[in-house]
């Protein structure tokens, strides 16, 4: 029996048999790992709620014949409770997990950069200080760069002439100059491309300065770019809650601050 | 591999949740040694299932008639509605004997990773009931796991502006991360009696 240990993010859980689950994790050293958590669905399981989606955990596995088996779990960051306490954050975080799971095709192949991107995005969502939709778009852009599908934002996607350029074409790979512009390109406006660039480089001051209509356009381009490269569409992306936040007076984090404190309750310590 | 119909039977049984190849073989040989009358009874029940199971038009649980036994029962408190994910959760709460109200079965939990959003669940039906019936309290009894908690969050937001409606959530007596169906009656009963307003 060979044991190994790693930290990882729980990206998917599937029922197995009566009371077990198959847990899919994106780990720091070993990339995607699928492993069995025995008895995890029984109340009073020693794993408790630690192997739920969004959990950042330190796990010990032993190598099984078909699937590895989880023997011990410790929580590193309990991102789950602040995320499920806000429905928009929950939908955004789900889209992040699904994207990470899909971009990580091979089990056991290291994906350190993607792992760090997922942790950074979930930490920002759980903290609640950044707009959840912007966190998602920044994650998707950088995750696409990780996969080698980074959209051209400043230079022309075709001839690499320096921009900024007014047109954007998903099939061509991003921004396109007036000479290369294929039929069916869109003209998103300079502010949208400025926002895309800010999200890609992590310039939050500039990103948060953008107006909501600009953010919606940028989200549309990012989603279209992602769907173009994925064989099948993401299930969670159409379910991401896109709200007209400028009309709501109270920030979302304050609106839903209290209801789900019980996730941290004493019952989890069993 | 067995020959013919015995292997077919094992294969069919092996497709059930929680039944591995060994259990399938055990059940198959149990059936082969059973009284033909027992097998006929099983066949009749399966025939009825194949003809279609009906769901209660009010609460959405499995029912023999248009309305289930609980929704027809005049002695049940119509002002109190317990929202659960699945029909099996109705049974779990009923077993506690603590609850005298009625139910609303959502048909699952909000789970974007499986493509399940509000429109895939019986959310609109719940809103319609609250709009027309005499409901004054909604108890959220979704599973104490990620999807169940997120569903409760969504319902709180959806229901909080209804005048005169109290929304409560099962108390934290339930260990997190499991399924409601595995909760013992004592734990589930205590969680019900200790519910609190959100
Ligand atoms: Zn009913």
TrEMBL record, chain A:
<dbReference type="InterPro" id="IPR003717">
    <property type="entry name" value="RecO"/>
</dbReference>
<feature type="domain" description="DNA replication/recombination mediator RecO N-terminal">
    <location>
        <begin position="1"/>
        <end position="79"/>
    </location>
</feature>
<dbReference type="Pfam" id="PF11967">
    <property type="entry name" value="RecO_N"/>
</dbReference>
<dbReference type="GO" id="GO:0043590">
    <property type="term" value="C:bacterial nucleoid"/>
</dbReference>
<dbReference type="GO" id="GO:0006310">
    <property type="term" value="P:DNA recombination"/>
</dbReference>
<dbReference type="InterPro" id="IPR012340">
    <property type="entry name" value="NA-bd_OB-fold"/>
</dbReference>
<comment type="function">
    <text>Involved in DNA repair and RecF pathway recombination.</text>
</comment>
<keyword id="KW-0233">DNA recombination</keyword>
<dbReference type="GO" id="GO:0006302">
    <property type="term" value="P:double-strand break repair"/>
</dbReference>
<feature type="region of interest" description="Disordered">
    <location>
        <begin position="248"/>
        <end position="270"/>
    </location>
</feature>
<protein>
    <recommendedName>
        <fullName>DNA repair protein RecO</fullName>
    </recommendedName>
</protein>
<dbReference type="Pfam" id="PF02565">
    <property type="entry name" value="RecO_C"/>
</dbReference>
<comment type="similarity">
    <text>Belongs to the RecO family.</text>
</comment>
<keyword id="KW-0234">DNA repair</keyword>
<feature type="compositionally biased region" description="Basic and acidic residues">
    <location>
        <begin position="253"/>
        <end position="263"/>
    </location>
</feature>
<keyword id="KW-0227">DNA damage</keyword>
<dbReference type="InterPro" id="IPR022572">
    <property type="entry name" value="DNA_rep/recomb_RecO_N"/>
</dbReference>
<dbReference type="InterPro" id="IPR042242">
    <property type="entry name" value="RecO_C"/>
</dbReference>
<dbReference type="InterPro" id="IPR037278">
    <property type="entry name" value="ARFGAP/RecO"/>
</dbReference>
From TrEMBL, chain B:
<dbReference type="InterPro" id="IPR023627">
    <property type="entry name" value="Rcmb_RecR"/>
</dbReference>
<dbReference type="GO" id="GO:0006310">
    <property type="term" value="P:DNA recombination"/>
</dbReference>
<keyword id="KW-0227">DNA damage</keyword>
<dbReference type="Pfam" id="PF13662">
    <property type="entry name" value="Toprim_4"/>
</dbReference>
<dbReference type="InterPro" id="IPR015967">
    <property type="entry name" value="Rcmb_RecR_Znf"/>
</dbReference>
<dbReference type="InterPro" id="IPR034137">
    <property type="entry name" value="TOPRIM_RecR"/>
</dbReference>
<keyword id="KW-0863">Zinc-finger</keyword>
<feature type="zinc finger region" description="C4-type">
    <location>
        <begin position="56"/>
        <end position="71"/>
    </location>
</feature>
<dbReference type="Pfam" id="PF21175">
    <property type="entry name" value="RecR_C"/>
</dbReference>
<dbReference type="InterPro" id="IPR000093">
    <property type="entry name" value="DNA_Rcmb_RecR"/>
</dbReference>
<comment type="function">
    <text>May play a role in DNA repair. It seems to be involved in an RecBC-independent recombinational process of DNA repair. It may act with RecF and RecO.</text>
</comment>
<dbReference type="Pfam" id="PF02132">
    <property type="entry name" value="RecR_ZnF"/>
</dbReference>
<dbReference type="GO" id="GO:0003677">
    <property type="term" value="F:DNA binding"/>
</dbReference>
<keyword id="KW-0862">Zinc</keyword>
<dbReference type="GO" id="GO:0008270">
    <property type="term" value="F:zinc ion binding"/>
</dbReference>
<keyword id="KW-0479">Metal-binding</keyword>
<feature type="domain" description="Toprim">
    <location>
        <begin position="79"/>
        <end position="175"/>
    </location>
</feature>
<keyword id="KW-0233">DNA recombination</keyword>
<dbReference type="Pfam" id="PF21176">
    <property type="entry name" value="RecR_HhH"/>
</dbReference>
<comment type="similarity">
    <text>Belongs to the RecR family.</text>
</comment>
<protein>
    <recommendedName>
        <fullName>Recombination protein RecR</fullName>
    </recommendedName>
</protein>
<keyword id="KW-0234">DNA repair</keyword>
